[in-house]
Amino acid sequence: MYPYFYGFDPTYMLIIIGAVLSLGASAVVNSTFRKYSRVRSLSGMTGAQAAQRILNSAGIYDVSVQHISGNLTDHYDPGAKVLRLSDSVYGETSVAAIGVAAHECGHAIQHQHSYVPLRLRTAIFPVASFGSKIAWPLILLGIILSMSQTLIYAGIFLFSFAVLFQLVTLPVEFNASRRAVKILDESGILYGDEVGITKKVLGAAALTYVAGAAAAILQLLRLLILFGGRNRD
Predict the structure, then answer these.
(1) Is 54 part of a structural domain of the chain?
(2) What InterPro entries does UniProt report for this protein, alphabetically (predicted)?
(3) 51: in domain
(4) pLDDT, tens only, 82-108
(5) Measured between alpha carbons, how far is 21 from 25 in angstroms, rounded to an integer?
(6) 141 inside domain
(7) Which of 62, 118, 121, 179 is the most exposed place for a label (fewest CB within 10 A)?
(8) pLDDT per position as a tens digit, 17-44
(9) 104 an active-site residue?
């Protein structure tokens, strides 16, 4: 077993590290987006207009572009075939807004071409969502019932699907950003230095996914440290 120091559980450090990484990544992406949301694109196109143009140029006519409230709540819904753009993107003409809109179009293009990591993430999502909700109740119930190994291990196993989902998300997001930068450069929607700015915005956004994956891995590692060797104690 791991040592305790004056009642302090040292594995909490893993949770703290994960939280710091997530908060730091969120601060970076928000700061970067705010900075470049003040840079108006030379084309004068809004995020919604850029998204529609990208989708049409890719031969995608069955995906609608809709507005959704919030800040950076943008996402592509493959089930409904809807690309939803937030307040800070939909009607804005900044380079940052167009970059985010193009990134979401990248997901629509992935869907059209049956991009394998996206298909895998979609397949994993129901189990990962269920696992993230039920894992801790199972683990806590296992502890209450005199350290029931079956329930605890079941909880850890289900939580591992949430971790797997985070890991599969990384190539999906990185690929969508690469597609976005390439499309914006080749289509002429953005010009010159504007493409470089988009890379910075999407690069900052990618940090949130990396931090999320790291935090999930650290959480799983903590569970394994806490309960992985119980049956040998």
Answers:
(1) no
(2) Zn_peptidase_2 (IPR007395)
(3) no
(4) 999 999 999 999 999 999 999 999 999
(5) 6
(6) yes
(7) 62
(8) 999 999 999 999 999 999 999 999 999 9
(9) yes
